[in-house]
Give the backbone structure.
Amino acid sequence: MKVIITGSTGMVGKGVLLECLDDDRISAVLLVNRSRIDIKHPKIKEIIHKNFTDLSTIQHDLKNYNACFHCMGVSSAGMKEEQYFELTFTITESLVNVLYNFNPNMTFIYVSGDGTDSTENSKTMWARVKGKTENLILNKGFKDAYAFRPGIILPERGVKSKTKLYNSLYILMRPIFPILKKMKSVTTSQNIGKAMIGLTLNSKQVKILSGSDINQAATNN
């Protein structure tokens, strides 16, 4: 199986990448990033592309893949809706359109967030935008598609958040990770990767997955 991963320089994306590299069912991984990742592996091919709203120059490199694990995302903190919309919905729309054109039989999995509003009518800006993004993906027509809505994500296998504040919080919380993992709403970077691989190979009826759903899918991987 050949997969595309976006956002692999971030905490979630890197966690997903590590699971893909360790899984013998994954034969090739294409990373589409703005900056290079610090991992070398025979499975990896990396494309550095700055403008994700225009993928025309790399579109032919995106052919013949079985899945896309779309882990790219930004915090809405301090952002106006127009900017957040472009970095969340517009970028995803560009990717979805190109991939559907070349790989309509692929599985597309998007890392969304707990509290996302599918009606797109929430008073919370990011919830509306992520809801619109989910709806785009789930209704595009791919062979299969999922939206992951994790709450708390615990980093594993040495992956770190790009946000310094989050990293500091994770360091403080690490002693209670074993307790947090027992909570149904809490998942891990490792479980997200395992769940993505498992769902690509074995389709499920539930298309929007909470933290507990992700953990269950990872267990069944």
User: Anything to note?
Assistant: The helical segments are 11-22, 81-102, 125-139, 164-173, 177-180, 189-201, 211-219. The chain has a mean pLDDT of 93.
